[in-house]
Amino acid sequence: MNRFEGKVVIVTGAGSGIGAATAKRFLAEGALVVLNGRRKDKLAETASGIDAKRVLLHDGDISDETYVAKLVGDTVAKFGRVDVLVNNAGVAAFGPILESTTEQWRKVMSIDVDGVYFAIRAALPHLLMTKGSIVNVSSVSGLGGDWGGSIYNAAKGAVTNLTRALALELGSQGVRINAVNPSLTSTEMTADFENNEPLVAKFKDRLPIGRGAKPEEVASVIAFLASEDAAFVNGVNLPVDGGITASNGQPNMTGLV
């Protein structure tokens, strides 16, 4: 499939995890891809083996609005347009609210929320010209609460509802915006979590599919939402969660009743 032949795609947080898998998916489908992340060496790993004419490696901090304006400006200078924006970059903080710090709160909000806002605002004039699309990477944590996850829940809840509000605002102007809401996905950010076997076992007990996601499985849904195959999909927060949001929260009672 070459659904994105000649299209220009910006992916934030493209150095690892879902972002790296997403950048590779768009490249495999013919896109010209701008890879953002904090570390240029990680971005180079993602783009390894790809013709340099098809990629732009752009290291920087998306919580800095001046940098984000440069990211979009350099994209247009190199490729002439923007067709798709994937807001993937994010960080997390967990623990009881009384043990949290102002620094943790501001770091999560600056990247997970401010970064999304800055990128959309900077890219939108170009997306309006191309009738492009935006895909935000939210989380199931943006659809409901998690124990010890108040800061992350607040940030991803903001992304979830920003997606809905902008779908109302932008749809009639030809720009679609949707979000994916993954559950447990194997990435660098979840490495410590995945090494906690009792915690992983409890989490997997809630997952009807019986495992966490691979980054490539989330990337394929992002590519679908950005493509013309989803031309009538707008304002959706799509759980990519193995069925976890199908549950009413009760424990697995199989074999007990």
UniProtKB/TrEMBL annotation:
Keyword Oxidoreductase: yes
Entry keyword Oxidoreductase: yes
Alphabetical UniProt keywords: Oxidoreductase
Any GO MF annotation of the entry: (S,S)-butanediol dehydrogenase activity
EC number: 1.1.1.-, 1.1.1.304, 1.1.1.76
Organism domain of life: Bacteria
Coiled-coil residue windows: none
Class of this enzyme: oxidoreductase
Pfam families given in the database record: adh_short_C2 (PF13561)
Annotated NCBIfam families: PRK07231.1
Family indicated by similarity: Belongs to the short-chain dehydrogenases/reductases (SDR) family.
The name this protein goes by in its record: Meso-butanediol dehydrogenase/(S,S)-butanediol dehydrogenase/diacetyl reductase
Organism: Granulicella aggregans
